Amino acid sequence: MSSRPAHDLLSRIFGYDEFRGPQQAIVEHVAAGNDALVLMPTGGGKSLCYQVPSLLRDGTGIVISPLIALMQDQVEALRQLGVRAEYLNSTLDGETAARVERELLAGELDMLYVAPERLLTGRFLSLLSRSTIALFAIDEAHCVSQWGHDFRPEYRQLTVLHERWPDVPRIALTATADPPTQREIAERLDLTNAQHFVSSFDRPNIRYTVVQKDNAKRQLLDFLKVHRQEAGIVYCMSRRKVEETAEFLCKEGMNALPYHAGLPAEVRAANQRRFLREDGIVMCATIAFGMGIDKPDVRFVAHTDLPKSMEGYYQETGRAGRDGEPAEAWLCYGLGDVVLLKQMIEQSEAGEDRKTLERSKLDHLLGYCESMQCRRQVLLAGFGETYPQPCGNCDNCLLPPDAWDASVAAQKALSCVYRSGQRFGVGHLIDILRGGDNEKVRQFGHTELSTYGIGKDLDARTWRSVFRQLVASSLLEVDSSAYGGLRLTDGSREVLKGQRKVMMRRETPKAARERDRSGQRTGLAVLPQDLALFNALRGLRAELAREQNVPAFVIFHDSTLRNIAEQRPTSVDALGRVGGIGGTKLARYGDRLVEIVREEG
Ligand code: ADP
Ligand code: ZN
To answer: Does one domain contain both 276 and 366?
Structure first.
């Protein structure tokens, strides 16, 4: 027997060799009866922080979770490990709920997941006072913040736990990165005296890439080629675009499904279920999709439009790679997106304060998109975190962009805007600069302008990139009218007078990008010689999942199957030494796994 009970339990039940990052410190702190506030990014491994202490302490661990849809999967995953877990929420029939309550009273449960509204009923509180409670875990603790998108009024009342059970340890957890929300959680939940465990919000396994939009559909397809048969999310700005994209990808032979708030609830639920339960589904969705999706093997998150803000982007991309395996966040963005978002802000009914805030959020996001610096550094800086050196796992690190002195091009572009009356959009401006001869140019007499044809040295794509960067850095502003005409700003005058140098990012030629991508796999790294066995193991997993009507990842993670395919254990004993397989799973599935290894080996 190990002298370290927590560690022993980790390997025996969960099949893991080591705690990750701060897990061990948190587990020991809570198991010893202390309160904790845990701030850890998605995929950081928050669940173990309360699951292990629940098992170490006497009584039942009570987990408060706002996501009813998730409870079932989490409880199922625990049962697969041989843990006596149940949940109580409005989806249970009375008989089952009564049984669960009896088991709680009889001390037969290791863990009980409960929705906050259920927890706060007088009936449930009185039930609790007659039970032995190991701890209270408050999951998604940011729901207590009224500034967040996920505000849940019942979370405010959770202070009752501390008042009625001062000796039961509480652990609150969230993946929210922004410091004001973190402070609010500590105050609202009465956790200011609890120890705070703050992790870095970096997600090292996610590779960030931003590309300039030129042919969005083609670019998306090229991106998805690298991720064949893998699960991922493609975010689109509008419902219509969600449906078009899903249809387009299906035509291209992919397993794509749509998800947005305008679809009937049954369709949404069915699509979400398929995404969770089947392998390799691409979910095309608005941001209505994702809250509480804890599928561990989402290999990519693609944005085909600009997200709303940096926080939004971090959350949405954070759904990739929860299992810690390589994953990709890909953003395709163009001038049109910038114009649209700027117009949305200007045209909104919001007050001036709100607009100022929205503008600065958008600027932060554009700064990220246009940055020539390591993306991770820019991303984390937005959350007040300093990432010391370039990460080596983003597009700018892997293929450092070329900067060019675009001062002259910027002057040409700005003076063209000025000469044509500060009311035309980019397409027309580029026609003038490149000396295009079309109806609109002639109609406005723009062939007579001094800027007509002065930009023939650059191609239209480069000009679009110049205009985009000018708008992104506020050297041009977008008219709030529907036409999206461009106007000069105070900054543009400095450029025109030659008082300000403008450095720009040179867009990588398409061929170079493809060469670059083809050499770099970012999906789950299965070696070619292991692929046949890996797929056979996946086949078995799919069968087991269907038999038990649970998601495949609840049975085994991809990474576990990959490890088996690599190590090819030919006995149940040897299988037990492969990471990720605890005692219960070994007993249940060991023989069948070994049989497949023998057949394929
Ligand atoms: P979070 O809730 O923070 O997003 P989870 O608790 O769902 O993260 O854990 C993310 C993934 O990491 C899960 O697939 C989990 O099984 C795995 N994991 C957590 N802790 C460990 C560990 N110590 N060793 C190996 N895998 C772990
Ligand atoms: Zn980097």
So the answer is: yes
For 346-379, b/e burial (b = at least 16 CB within 10 A) is beeeeeeeeeeebeebbeebbbbbbbebbbbbbb
Boundary-marking domain end, from 198, 216, 242: 198
Res. 472: pLDDT tops 70: yes
The answer on 169 and 264 residing in a single domain is no
Nearest alpha carbon, ligand 1 atom 26: 16
> Got the DSSP string for 264-314?
-HHHHHHHHHHHHHSSSPEEEE-TTS-TT---TTEEEEEESS--S-HHHHH
Q: Which of 451, 471, 505 is the last residue of a domain?
A: 505
Structural domain span for residue 87: 3-198
Q: In this structure, are 32 and 62 located in the same domain?
A: yes
What does the pLDDT read at residue 474? 87
Q: Which of 409, 405, 402 is nearest to 513 (CA)?
A: 402
CA-to-CA distance for 539 and 229, rounded, in angstroms?
A: 13
- CATH number for 572: 1.10.150.80
Compute the distance between CA of residue 192 and CA of residue 136 in angstroms, rounded to an integer: 16
pLDDT of residue 482: 60
Q: Which two tokens stand for residue 144?
A: 């207590």
Residue 518 lies in a domain: no
- Residue 102 and residue 59 share a domain: yes
Domain-located, residue 523: no
Mean pLDDT score, 340-350: 87
Choose the residue to mutate in 9, 13, 16 for probing ligand 1, maximizing ligand atoms within 8 Å of C-beta.
Answer: 16
pLDDT number for residue 516:
55
- Mean pLDDT throughout 589-599? 92
Q: Residues 334, 367: one domain?
A: yes
Residue appearing with tokens 């600065």: 360
More confident residue, 345 or 300: 300
Residue that the structure tokens 């609010």 belong to: 184
Summarised one tens digit per residue, pLDDT across range 115-145 is 999 999 999 999 999 999 999 999 999 899 8
| Mean pLDDT of all residues in 299-319 | 92
Q: Distance from the CA of 45 to the center of ligand 1, in angstroms? A: 3
Residue 210 pLDDT exceeds 90: yes
CA of 502 to the centre of ligand 2 (A): 23
Query: Are 292 and 220 part of one and the same domain?
Result: yes
Whole-number Å distance, alpha carbon 48 to ligand 1 midpoint, is 7
pLDDT (mean) for 50-73: 92
Q: Is residue 515 part of a domain?
A: no
Percentage of the chain lying above the pLDDT 90 cut: 66
Q: Is there a single domain that holds both residue 22 and residue 122?
A: yes
Co-location of 217 and 335 in the same domain: yes
Q: Say if residue 517's pLDDT is above 90.
A: no
Name the domain count of the chain. Answer: 4
Contact 206, 329 (CB under 8 A): yes
Q: What is the CATH number of the domain that holds 453?
A: 1.10.10.10
Q: Which residues line ligand 1 (CB under 6 A)?
A: 16, 18-20, 23, 40, 42-48, 294, 296, 322-324, 557
- Rounded CA-CA distance 560/579 in Å is 7
Ligand nearest to the CA of 174: 1
